[in-house]
Amino acid sequence: MKITGKIKSNNGEYLAGANVYISDSDGTPKNFNGRIIGTSTDANGNFTLDSESINNNDYIRVKYIGFDPYLKRIGDVCTGGNCNLDITLQESSQLLNEFVVEEKVKKADERKKKKIFLIASVCITIALLILYGYNTSKASK
Fold first, then answer.
1. Residue 132 DSSP label
2. 124: domain range?
3. What pLDDT digit, counting tens, does each position of 37-65 carry?
4. Residue 60 and residue 125: Cα distance in Å, rounded?
5. pLDDT, tens only, 73-108
6. What is the total count of domains within the chain?
């Protein structure tokens, strides 16, 4: 069976580098005698999967960073021996939420580092003053 198609975002932009492969119903790449049937989309979002091992009970899975994965049974989206698909991926709100949380953690870490640096600077200054015998009684005269 030969499966061709295009992958695009819900904004209509074609997605280059999306992973397209034949999988089990849980999305795990299917093993065909020690090999996986899969590819990546080209610069225009095009892909081709061509193997006699593919059948209607297999699944096609598409993954792209920042988008919800696509998983459909081939028999539900293809008819006959050849198939041409237009697949639209939806942006993932879960990944966006993870990104926001990660950015908040990074900002908190930066503030923490600044505080630690300030405390370390004060400690070094005090240590140098003690080491070189800074005498407060001489300074006040």
1. T
2. 94-139
3. 999 999 999 999 998 888 889 999 999 98
4. 64
5. 999 998 877 799 999 999 886 655 555 555 555 666
6. 2
